[in-house]
Prior knowledge:
35% helix, two-stranded antiparallel sheet, Rossmann fold, globular, 9 strands, binds S-adenosylmethionine, 9 helices, 23% strand, alpha/beta, seven-stranded mixed β-sheet
Amino acid sequence: MQPYTPRFLSDQAQRTKPTRQYLYQQTKWSHAPLCIDIGCGAGAISPEIANEIAHSTVIGFDIDSNLLTKAMNEPNLNHAVHYVLADAMALPFRRVIADFALSHFTMMWIQDRIQALKEIQNTLLPNGSLACIEPDYTGRIELHKIHSHIQSKPPFPIVTALTRLGADPCTGSQLPSDLTSLAFHDVQFGVLSWTFNSGSIRSEIKSEAKLLQDKGIDWTEPTFIYTPIFWVHATKSR
Ligand SMILES: C[S@@+](CC[C@H](N)C(=O)[O-])C[C@H]1O[C@@H](n2cnc3c(N)ncnc32)[C@H](O)[C@@H]1O
């Protein structure tokens, strides 16, 4: 069982919304663009793409039929959004169709990321763009109250837990070189900046504590955690 619920995904999507808005503005299309939401989960983001990118049609796809059912049962379903059951490593699209593709916390969960990136590249039209928002848990900061505010050093327990679940915890920092090696051009990237508040830190620590407990991993609960989240934007060559 994966450690994310529709509620968790929706809260996570809310926190990264300003970065997605920046990414949507990176390209302007003279026609109605077709966009794909890679691993759309419970549909936290697909309707937003349809609203933010003018005249777009969005295909959200995911490998998890339970999450897709949640997305499709959304009461105010946007008619520009279509959901499909599909594996990013073997996409069912037989033609080059997409102007824009987004991965939000999906690449880290895909077994063979390079294969998925190749499939997406094959689905993108020339000059189509790919945007990703993905974390790197290996670059995190954990502060502890006991032992007089020492900082934890790697390996972090959360990295062990995610690896056991089959995720690649350092995906965010790997994507720029992955995309460069696949001959995407204009590869730009950065790290999201956060404003912390005690409530959000507490709920993040609580959700990690549960995950680590479920995985039977010992963890001295920190007072503060920070995980760098990378955004990457790249264009498919002509
Ligand atoms: C952390 S969730 C993110 C969901 C969504 N992008 C969001 O931000 O709300 C990761 C998603 O990736 C999907 N996923 C994992 N491997 C996949 C694959 N090979 N093909 C398609 N989706 C996949 C999972 O089912 C899950 O919905």
